[in-house]
Amino acid sequence: MCRWLAYSGSPVLLEELLYKPTNSLVIQSKHSRLGVETTNGDGFGVGWYGGGQTPGLFLSTEPAWNDRNLRELSAQVAAGRVFAHIRASTGSAVQQTNCHPFRHGRWLWMHNGVIADFAAVRRDLTLAIDPVLFPGIEGSTDSEILFYLALSFGLSEDPPSAVARAVGFVEETGRRHGVAHPIQMTVATTDGEVTWAFRYSSIGRSRSLFHSTDVSTLRRQYPDNAVLHDLSADTRLVVSEPLGDLEGAWREVPESSCVVVLKGVEELRPFAPVVS
Amino acid sequence: MCRWLAYSGSPVLLEELLYKPTNSLVIQSKHSRLGVETTNGDGFGVGWYGGGQTPGLFLSTEPAWNDRNLRELSAQVAAGRVFAHIRASTGSAVQQTNCHPFRHGRWLWMHNGVIADFAAVRRDLTLAIDPVLFPGIEGSTDSEILFYLALSFGLSEDPPSAVARAVGFVEETGRRHGVAHPIQMTVATTDGEVTWAFRYSSIGRSRSLFHSTDVSTLRRQYPDNAVLHDLSADTRLVVSEPLGDLEGAWREVPESSCVVVLKGVEELRPFAPVVS
Amino acid sequence: MCRWLAYSGSPVLLEELLYKPTNSLVIQSKHSRLGVETTNGDGFGVGWYGGGQTPGLFLSTEPAWNDRNLRELSAQVAAGRVFAHIRASTGSAVQQTNCHPFRHGRWLWMHNGVIADFAAVRRDLTLAIDPVLFPGIEGSTDSEILFYLALSFGLSEDPPSAVARAVGFVEETGRRHGVAHPIQMTVATTDGEVTWAFRYSSIGRSRSLFHSTDVSTLRRQYPDNAVLHDLSADTRLVVSEPLGDLEGAWREVPESSCVVVLKGVEELRPFAPVVS
Amino acid sequence: MCRWLAYSGSPVLLEELLYKPTNSLVIQSKHSRLGVETTNGDGFGVGWYGGGQTPGLFLSTEPAWNDRNLRELSAQVAAGRVFAHIRASTGSAVQQTNCHPFRHGRWLWMHNGVIADFAAVRRDLTLAIDPVLFPGIEGSTDSEILFYLALSFGLSEDPPSAVARAVGFVEETGRRHGVAHPIQMTVATTDGEVTWAFRYSSIGRSRSLFHSTDVSTLRRQYPDNAVLHDLSADTRLVVSEPLGDLEGAWREVPESSCVVVLKGVEELRPFAPVVS
């Protein structure tokens, strides 16, 4: 469906994340190894935190692999917190307002997966969105609705709880419409300080998700690897699939769990939907 | 805001409608004479009835004046019923799903104008849409919501009544939110057989709207005008602004009225919103 | 690199060629079976002969698989002679002027392959183009330059000879610049009456090319196959790869040969570059 | 035809240049005051010098006024040297490779105007380009050819002389083809340290060109103007038309002259084509 990465650490040029790794996100846009679709060519997006009040967004309907503006931007913009996403549409239109990451104030959100039978449940889900937030909806994806549900359920106060309630509501609504397995997701969200990443699916077989391991351990393990020495100790990546083949560098996020990344420390917590 | 034309008559190449007139729609995309905006460069759309079950649509986010595919298509495709629209966005995203005409089954719909303070009323309007129709909403414009309201209020059974109820509902909703003049519109809709065009605004000063006059009368008036002799007697155009300067060729549609065009006969009726 | 099809026969809706076959060109845009690249997502083009003086062209930089306008057009436009092409760029920009088929007057041209080390030979090749034709060059591909060379060498008088001289000139120029294998190509060209298709490469291992076999034979072989009965007897397809798995329906075009399709009869000729 | 601005001074967010002025370049894209065309909606480009070896480029075929990525980028990227251009095509395709500024190594180039009867002279001009530079040509505009001629005539060693020779060669070539007034131009070019801007036309009635005046003088003149106090003393703008109405802030560049801007000092020199 899609692939994404969430970076936090010392400021790096976007190209270090998007182009240079062996299995970079741009390479995954044409040849994903672990995705449901090998091709993720239905647009892409990058969000980064610079000096502004809100993070910057560059969204495009072009495939990432042939977009020259993405290459230019990636060679010029450095950031210490980056969300990037490549899209394989499950049917909704290929347009910038359907590209991830979605933004609300300082928050970014991106999703790989699907709300099953979305046409059937879309209205009920939409009605549950806080009327104050409603005018911000711009696209037509299940992912954006999930974001707005999480926002409505208190994302900015308690992200894990808000996502649990949003997912619980999606499952409850789906089942009321006779959907056996209402949601499939890996989700990342951030306020610019902390990253929360979730791996969950109603069927219990979720899309792949990994996080990078401690850089200092890796350095001891690979004393001659120059790349590792350029990274700050607090660097962490959460990714749909590993960006390279370095043994020990990636750890799979277990089913039904949430990874919280704060100042270079990741914490793994169980995740379960909550029904109100 | 926008400009549009609705054609019915003998099959003509699209270029006869879109490029060749002195004040063609493509020319209006850069230099509209009567529009609120002189530039209508935020995408365009053409809908035409060919051999298929549903009308064809060509929608683009490019300005009409520089779109080469529109020029190509216009030189190849002929049709006896054509809707065409050039867009000047009032804020919503420039994307194909926001381009007019909108389609539902055999129905086409296009709009020039605005639902005032749309962000404030959007949710209430959206909730009034028939849940069966709801999944068809793809874009984020006021115009599409107005279409879906009209469909929900029975467009396919009694178009003038459905539009009257949709507009009445928009006005009632707007006023409940403190909007003084909730709607401004010229709208055209067709099922492929009849065209209905509406000119109305809450403030009573609606965007311009014209229809072409009887071709046979024009022929007598201008016996040497070759263009007129190529047109079938039942040819009728309803347009945001005249496509040329031929005296007697265009008649303004009065405020608060509806023009019904069927088999080359136009009928003018008063139009007033209906509150349920 | 790319994939294409050249159709001639009774008029069919474009969707019959582009969407409905098991291994349709749109499916190949994401998952080509025999291509050098499985993904051909760097734009596409369709050329068709309608009523106009010149064939119509619809060119787009979007991947064919997600382009809604292509789907619409394909459901509305029927033609008896169609060229269609999906692109996998070998480096030149993704823009409409680099999409195939290229057009000159009534002629269409499309190419799968590459002129090796094009940057090195581009200038010399460009200088050999007839100065009268030169202003028509709009893009930056090797494929367009090859077309203009063929036009300069007399494509409209004797296509096989003109292509042989163009290819001979490319090989001679390449070798002068130290290029071992200067050209790799399957090419199709038509004037709207006859289709010529070429399979050739300097290295003698050319990209795949097939033509469909006699429809009446197939009908006898598969008396229950409804699709075959809808096709006129003179229907012929030349394709980069078979559109389906029907045994006996496709015949590989041999290395270094040219297929000429005229009124449902295909003629196979040897092809060899000619050096002036 | 087009409008542009060339900024040098203390680093500013792009939005300060492109969006905030009363008559900003984005406003000019829809409503230019002094341009030959009021609408400059055929794409745009921004080039800026950041930390990289070469300046960054963001080029788009969308109208500047509705491009959301431009707005995002402008809110995030700051630079001390910026070239920006909005395009009104005189016929060549609307594609990124035809958007200004053009780049070669550290050099940027942008142009407002036209090489008259370009189709007639294009081949001769192209042949005069240094064969080493030739492979870099990507688009189909007269402006890019003019850039490559200037590069071929020594732009990186002596810009005024190289431009004079390039323009001389264009005039000579045009006249040989019977063109009365071969060139119309305002051009800006920079290596990232110095900006050179030229105003010239064969007919002696060139497109408008202005440069900003000394900031410290303006500050004394308008002691209460906050904007002026944020600008560093070496800030200079060269623009197709003034970005605002502040009296004394802009000085017209005379016909047939060149402005050289280096470290906040502008020098005005006469400019005349040189025929080899």
Structural description of this entry:
Four copies of one chain form a homotetramer. With 276 residues, the first copy, chain A, is an alpha+beta fold. Chain A has a single domain (2-270), classed as Glutamine Phosphoribosylpyrophosphate, subunit 1, domain 1, CATH 3.60.20. In chain A, 26% of the residues lie in helices and 30% in strands. Chain A contains eight helices and 13 strands. In chain A, a hairpin with a 2-residue loop joins strand 12 (257-262) and strand 13. The longest helix of chain A is centred in the middle third of the chain and has 18 residues, at 159-176. Chain A starts with a strand and ends in a 6-residue tail after the last strand. At the C-D interface, helix 4 of C face helix 4 of D.
* Quaternary structure type: homotetramer
CATH topology of chain A: Glutamine Phosphoribosylpyrophosphate, subunit 1, domain 1
**Proportion of helical residues of chain A:** 25-40%
How are the strands of the biggest sheet of chain A laid out side by side?
3-2-4-1-10-9-11
Number of domains of chain A: 1
Structural class designation of chain A: alpha+beta
Poorly predicted tracts of residues of chain A: none
Q: What's the CATH architecture name of chain A?
A: 4-Layer Sandwich
What is the class of chain A in the CATH system? Alpha Beta
Largest interface: A-B, 18 and 18 residues
Q: Total helix count of chain A?
A: 8
